[in-house]
Design a protein that fits this description.
The complex is a heterodimer. Chain A is mainly alpha-helical. Chain A is built from 14 helices and 3 strands. Helix content of chain B is about 50%, strand content about 15%. The chains are: A mainly alpha, B alpha/beta.
Chain lengths: ~350, ~425
């Protein structure tokens, strides 16, 4: 009798398992299918195309070219040439004899990444790159990520703390700060083009704040275009991270604050000893999400500056887009995507390591 | 957490590719659905003119009339903004989802024909004969595209401005020389009445740059590429004449005559804050309505080789994957009737593609206020290099000129462009 019930029980539970397993598979199927189509397939495609000379538009069949794309993308070189102090173009002309695509030198096809002239002006040192625009793009992307992570994350935390305190109209402020996040980035970018014009809102505000201020066209100044995009991006995304911080803040039990108050801790001490440790995992999440979003900077650049002026706002994803879609070099563009993918993975692993140690 | 991170990682790497692919997929199904009903065949069509209300309204009118005129075909339109139109076509071709009827910018057509996006176009030979040369696109001696208009560029000015600074009003027979034009810019700048002396239109991106500026470079004696072989740009795009153009053009920005931060709405000329505007005949209607008889439409300056302006504008073609080319060419013949050519010309101010249509457009009829554009088009029009390489040449040239506007050394910018074009040519086996 007992064995029978046990067997029946087992049978029953087994079928339940099988049933729920089947249901489970059904539930994940749509997600898996979408991920396979929009994530796995493009990544596999990018990895295979990166080793070919595939063109977007060409009647010619793509050919396997090995690591040629990667050598062009990553190669760097140093060369010094004679210069004529009285003719500023002479050094560039001499260099071009070495770097012409048809030249029979190891520098053929390379571009100028950096230059410096000797004091008397008779020698010029050039740093060359197979793809100078890639290195400029990488530099801009890294600057963008390094500045925006603390700026956007910190601002979002400050806003979350404000909204989390017992003030009236909490929902109102939360909505206001969140509004740019739900607005399309293209729309936001177009609006900010107007803000940044010489007679735009930004200049009007600065003019009222600073006496004797000269209006600046931010987006055509090579030194200010990237900072302008950083500021606008931080403003646009700050609401999202504010909500994440807010969720983190609300998981901290109120008793901890009561206990801290009883111990005589002031607001700052409470923040240091209770709030911040309680936000540990939120911090890691916000940091990693901001970094990854920052590395993918594209829309703002595409709408506002097209990488200019003088390459000061070109980014890796924009460079990838320009090579692939404007110049039809889809194979080369895929090679950039692979290098970029590896870079982002490395950065994320490093961030995880650094933040985990302190756990 | 880790999983989420990984997902985000992959998403950010792939998003650029996926996003552009998405835009194309919707329209692909159109033709299949239409065919499935068995009654009418759906002909999908893409237009670059989203946001250009007058142009798109005329296209839509023609489509409605065409669909009502017969029951065999139904044309379905999808609109794209001009800035992303070419990218969308490239993405659609890669995913094999091209629409049936495309519109194509004249100079880009050889590239699309070479790449296999387009099939040769067959239209009624009398109609083909009647179209202006600038409204027809030939590649390898075959007709691939035909359009309802040609466009021409000119220099817009106020008569009162020129009189105030005592400048000569140029004519087609005697355009401004470079010295006269330089003096004019300096004189306008010196009045202090204007924010800038000239609006070159550099707020527009993409094909506008080579369309508007490479003819000026040709007027200096330069060019984009060696037109005898189409196999090298070195010594042409960076020739002394081309560099002279680059230096001069950059200097108009460096001296503050033109605004490097010019925006695309280009309202300053009508508002009176910029004195001259280098613009196409499509923009003249608004200026004429605002300024009336004070508006002057002037030939561009002669920088040595005579004034030059770009010829060939947007035209219609049929994609290689179109399953009912007869229906597509029937529609193209339909929209190229004088009725619609007149409507395009009246509404957007473009040069009518046939002489019979021109007679019905008051502005372009002999003695009309815009008839001078027909003269510019006939006397100064130069084709951009008709080679499949043009798509790359155009992108590379745009970046070089943008850099020059922002203060880059003209020689270095154009040298770099020459090297990049030559590398691209070699990379594509010279587009043979």
């Amino acid at each position: 009798m007992t064995t029978l019930t046990r067997a029946r029980k087992r049978l029953f539970s087994n079928s339940l398992n099988a049933k729920s397993a089947r249901a489970g598979i059904l539930f994940v199927l749509p997600a898996v299918a979408l991920l396979a189509m929009f994530l796995v397939a493009p990544v596999v495609l990018a990895f295979s195309l990166g080793f070919t000379n595939a063109k977007f538009a060409s009647p010619n069949e793509p050919e396997f070219v090995g690591i040629e794309n990667f050598t062009e993308l990553l190669s760097l070189g140093q060369v010094s040439v004679d210069a004529d102090p009285s003719d500023p173009n002479s050094a560039y002309d001499n260099l071009r004899d070495l770097t012409k695509p048809a030249a029979d030198t190891p520098y053929a096809g390379m571009q100028i990444l950096n230059e410096s002239f000797s004091e008397d002006g008779t020698k010029a040192d050039f740093t060359l790159a197979g793809d100078a625009l890639f290195w400029k793009s990488l530099k801009n992307t890294v600057i963008f990520a390094l500045v925006i992570a603390p700026l956007q994350g910190g601002l979002a935390l400050a806003l979350a703390l404000l909204i989390n305190s017992k003030i009236k109209g909490k929902v109102f402020f939360r909505t206001i700060y969140f509004m740019p996040v739900v607005t399309s980035m293209v729309v936001v970018s177009i609006l900010w083009i107007f803000f940044y014009q010489k007679d735009g809102l930004a200049n009007v505000i600065l003019d009222n704040l600073i006496p004797g201020y000269e209006p600046i066209a931010f987006l055509t100044d090579p030194n200010l275009a990237l900072p302008a995009i950083i500021f606008m991006s931080a403003w646009q995304g700050v609401g999202f991270h504010m909500i994440v911080w807010l969720a983190g803040l609300q998981t901290i039990p109120g008793e901890l604050y009561e206990a801290a108050t009883v111990d005589g801790a002031n607001k700052w001490q409470q923040f240091k000893a209770v709030t911040w440790p309680g936000l540990r995992s939120t911090f890691v999440f916000v940091l990693i999400v901001i970094s990854i979003q920052a590395m993918g900077l594209f829309t703002q650049v595409n709408v506002m500056t097209q990488g200019g002026p003088l390459d000061s706002t070109t980014t890796v994803v924009f460079h990838l887009f320009r090579e692939g879609f404007r110049k039809n070099e889809i194979g080369y563009s895929s090679a950039i995507a692979i290098v970029f993918f590896i870079l982002v993975v490395l950065i994320s692993i490093i961030q995880r390591r650094l933040t985990r140690e302190r756990d | 957490m880790i999983k989420l991170t990984r997902a985000l990682l992959a998403a950010s790497a792939a998003s650029a590719i996926v996003l552009s692919g998405c835009a194309a997929t919707d329209s692909a199904s159109n033709s299949e659905e239409g065919a499935a009903t068995g009654e009418t065949t759906t002909i999908s069509m893409w237009s670059h003119a989203a946001g250009n209300d007058q142009e798109i309204a005329t296209v839509k009118e023609a489509i409605t009339d065409f669909n009502a005129s017969q029951t065999q075909y139904e044309v379905v339109l999808e609109e794209f903004p001009q800035e992303s139109y070419n990218d969308s076509i490239a993405a659609a071709a890669a995913s094999n989802t091209l629409p049936c009827v495309v519109d194509v910018d004249g100079p880009i057509m050889p590239n699309w024909a070479w790449a296999g996006y387009l099939q040769p176009l067959t239209i009624d030979s009398a109609l083909e004969q009647s179209l202006l040369p600038g409204a027809k696109g030939y590649y390898n001696d075959q007709l691939y595209s035909a359009g309802a208009w040609d466009a021409a560029l000119g220099m817009l000015a106020r008569k009162s401005t020129l009189e105030a600074v005592g400048a000569r009003i140029p004519t087609v027979a005697e355009p401004w020389t470079q010295a006269e034009f330089d003096a004019l810019l300096a004189a306008i700048d010196a009045t202090g009445d204007y924010d800038y002396a000239i609006d070159w239109g550099n707020g527009w991106t993409g094909e506008w740059f080579p369309y508007a500026y490479s003819p000026i470079m040709q007027s200096f004696g330069g060019d984009l590429i060696d037109r005898s072989s189409f196999e090298t740009a070195d010594g042409v795009i960076n020739s002394d004449a081309s560099v002279a153009f680059g230096e001069w053009f950059g200097s108009t920005f460096a001296k503050g005559y033109a605004n490097a931060a010019q925006t695309g709405d280009r309202t300053e000329f009508i508002a009176g804050t910029i004195a001259l505007q280098y613009n196409g005949n499509w923009a003249v209607k608004d200026a004429y309505e605002a300024l009336g008889d004070d508006l002057l439409i002037l030939p561009p300056p002669n920088f040595g080789q005579g004034p030059k302006i770009g010829a060939a504008s947007w035209q219609f073609g049929i994609s290689s994957t179109c399953e009912s080319p007869e229906g597509a060419s029937a529609f193209i013949e339909f929209i190229l009737q004088d009725k619609y050519i007149v409507a395009f010309a009246n509404r957007i101010g473009l040069i009518p593609a046939t002489a019979t249509a021109a007679e019905q457009v008051p502005n372009y009829a002999p003695g009309g206020p815009f008839a001078v554009f027909v003269e510019f088009s006939n006397s100064y029009g130069v084709l951009r290099p008709p080679t499949p390489a043009y798509l790359s040449v155009s992108t590379i040239y745009e970046k070089a000129v943008a850099d020059i506007i922002n203060g880059a050394n003209a020689k270095q910018a154009l040298d770099a462009a020459a090297d990049e074009i030559d590398a691209n040519l070699a990379d594509n086996d010279f587009y043979r």
